[in-house]
């Protein structure tokens, strides 16, 4: 005869916060997705990064691991909803008024190149990229061989994080 055990479990709504919980801040951004849609919302970033000194950046979140990342979207009635988005289907992210690229080590001395990017969505972005490579390996082609999936492109109005897997053509422009 099968034996079943049932146990009453009482969970407190006011349970203590876990020592493993990481407080996150929100950073606004707009996702441009491979289906042509655009989604405005917020990324969740930690106050410190395991990869570098200082706070976690949106680029860290996007390049951290494959698969999905959480993104908070304002739903109807001004309530928010956290949706998991697949990195592979994000063509680029627009960070308006966010200059996190300037926090990269060596930003001030890295060679910059004016570039045009043609993306799989048909969008063309124009801006400046910085190449973090040793002298002699600081061409636009070296930038394109970065191991990061998401790369910075800067304009006066916004910082873009472009998914290199959606990058069709990269052209150096005369500045």
What do these coordinates show?
With 175 residues, the protein is mostly beta strands. It contains 2 helices and 10 strands; from the N terminus they run ββαβββββαβββ. A hairpin with a 5-residue loop joins strand 3 (68-74) and strand 4.
Quick recap of the structure?
The protein has 175 residues and is mainly β. Helix content is 6%, strand content 41%.
SSE blueprint:
Elements: E1 24-33, E2 38-46, H1 58-63, E3 68-74, E4 80-86, E5 90-96, E6 112-119, E7 124-130, H2 140-144, E8 150-154, E9 158-163, E10 167-172
Antiparallel strand pairs: 1-2, 1-5, 2-3, 3-4, 5-9, 6-7, 6-10, 8-9
- Strand arrangement in the largest pleated sheet: 4-3-2-1-5-9-8
| Helix-strand sequence | EEHEEEEEHEEE
How many DSSP H or I helices? 2
Question: Structural class, please?
Answer: mainly beta
Low-pLDDT stretches: 1-13
Please provide the count of β strands. Answer: 10
Q: Domains counted in the coordinates: how many?
A: 1
Q: Shape, please?
A: globular
Helix content: under 10%
Head-to-tail CA distance between termini:
82 Å
Overall mean confidence score, pLDDT: 87
Strand content: 35-45%
Largest sheet: 7 strands, antiparallel
What key attributes describe this structure?
mainly beta, disordered N terminus, single chain, seven-stranded antiparallel β-sheet, 175 residues, three-stranded antiparallel β-sheet
């Amino acid at each position: 005869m099968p034996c079943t055990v049932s146990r009453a479990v009482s969970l407190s709504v006011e349970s203590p916060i876990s020592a493993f919980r990481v407080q996150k801040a929100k950073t606004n951004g707009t996702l441009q997705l491979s289906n042509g849609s655009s989604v405005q919302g917020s990324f969740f970033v930690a106050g410190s990064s395991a990869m570098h000194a200082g706070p976690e950046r949106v680029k860290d979140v996007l390049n951290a691991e494959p698969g999905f990342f959480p993104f908070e979207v304002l739903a109807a009635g001004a309530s928010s909803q956290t949706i998991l988005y697949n990195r592979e289907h994000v063509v680029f992210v627009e960070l308006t008024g966010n200059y996190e690229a300037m926090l990269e080590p060596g930003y001030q001395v890295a060679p910059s190149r004016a570039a045009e990017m043609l993306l799989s969505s048909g969008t063309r972005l124009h801006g400046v990229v910085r190449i973090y490579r040793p002298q002699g390996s600081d061409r636009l082609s070296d930038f394109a061989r970065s191991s990061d999936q998401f790369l910075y492109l800067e304009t006066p109005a916004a910082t873009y994080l472009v998914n290199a897997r959606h990058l069709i053509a990269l052209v150096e422009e005369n500045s």
